[in-house]
Structures are given as C-alpha cells and as structure tokens.
Amino acid sequence: MSRYSYIVIDPLSSFGPGDRLQGVLSFLRDCGYSGVELNLTEPTGVDPDRLEGWLSDLDLVVPSFLTGDAYSQGLCLSALDLSVRQRTVQRLIDYLDVAQQFDAILVVGLLQGFRSDEPDPDVANRRITECLREVAAAAEDKKCEIVIEPVNHLQVGFNNSVGEVLALIEAINSPAVRPMVDTIHMNIEEASLVEPIRKCGDRLRHVHLCESNGSLFGTGNVDFGSVLKSLDEINYRRFASVKVYRGAALEEAAPASIEYLRKAEG
What we know:
The chain is α/β, with parallel strands linked by helices. Helix content is 43%, strand content 14%. Strands 1-2-3-4-5-6-7-8 form an 8-stranded parallel barrel, surrounded by 5 helices. Helix 1 links the parallel strand 1 (3-11) and strand 2 (35-39). Helix 1 (20-31) packs parallel to helix 2 (48-58), helix 3 packs parallel to helix 4 and helix 4 (121-142) crosses helix 5. The longest helix has 22 residues, at 121-142.
C-alpha cells in the first residue's frame, strides 16, 4: 500500500514563529505517519529552512502542499478580473519555490472558484486552463508537479468529478499537471469509489482519504477497504493523506485513523 501522511488543516501561518508545529510533527511521526500535508499561506508564517530541519530530524516528508487558503485572500483562477487571475497565477508560481524545496506537489482545488465568481462553466474553464498552463510551464522549469483535486459541487464551482478533471488536464497539456482523488468528494460526485481510481490508473499522483462526514474513519459510509484495494490494483505507491476536519481533534484523529487504515488493509 501507499505511505500515509496526515493533513494539518490549520494554515501554516496559524502556528506562529515558535515550536508548536514541531510538536505536531513529532506527534504525527510517533503515530506512524511518514509524511505530513501542509496548508500554504502567504506569508508562510514558518521559516522553510527551519521546517526542513524539523522534518529531517523526524524522518518525515511533505508530499504535498494545499493552496486553497489563497481563495480567502481574494485570489481565484476563474475570476472575471484579469488582474485577480494574474495574481493567482503568480501566487501559485511563488508556491512552486516552496514545493521545490521540499520535493512536494501543489494541490489545486478551491482556487478554481465558484459559480458566483463566473456563472458560465465554459468561460470559467477557459480561464482556469489558461492560468494553469502558465503555472504548469513554471512547474516544468522547476521540475515540480501540480495535482488538480476534483472537489464536490458544494465546495467548488467547476471540475467536480474525476472525469472533468482529466478533461481539464488534457486541455492544459502539460506533464507537470496530474490528477488526484479524494474519497469525500468521490462519495458525493461519483457512482463508484473505485472506478475513478482505475480511470486515473498510473496517472494518479495523490490521494486524500476522508470519511463521508469529514469525521473519524468508520463513522460514515466510505468503504476504505475497497479504496485501498483499488489503489493496490493500479500499483499506487505514493502518499495517501488522511483528512479529518470535523468532530475530532488531531490528537484523537491521527492515531485512530492510521489504526483504522492498517486494519482496512487486511
């Protein structure tokens, strides 16, 4: 099976300049995780070199960085205002420098925007495609990768299914842009939790594991055993990031989640 990482939902900037994040990383390592997925913000709030040192000491890696917090700062790939789109592209290119330092990928989902940003999905997708082509060109230069997350229609206005994301990636036409899946979004948008994984096949670059209610694994209706089996079937050996954002704090959710997944592996 793939290696497990844990998504720290709180933005990096919320940890401040102290060592609180180091304690979280140490706890996750002790739980059995080999990676941690972090939520990028601007300003970052944590010195990247110091973070790199902590990770090295703990034998942890950052497989991926989330980018959606930038939407709350007014950035959007589908925005009507060209200057907003240009700033969004530049923010993602700036984030590539951080991703390059940690040999990590960037996760793009929420930054696509909502129908309130652009009601016409064709227009929105043209803007999203044009923007991500620019980011992808920079990613190729830096030898980085971007993954596009299919996010359900209640949380993002466009490209909610794996099929739509694959079509967007084809339109961008860059080897730096790859698909990912997230079980909570597949549970809403897809007829199956395993067929989208098989459809991605060896193109699949990243996975989020999240219960249907966003809470502790086993309290919803996601069949994690089938998901893990389908990942094995396509020989997926990259990270799968655990996401729990409701009903339990990290101190409870992190150990409970990895224990649940080890049992689900069979």
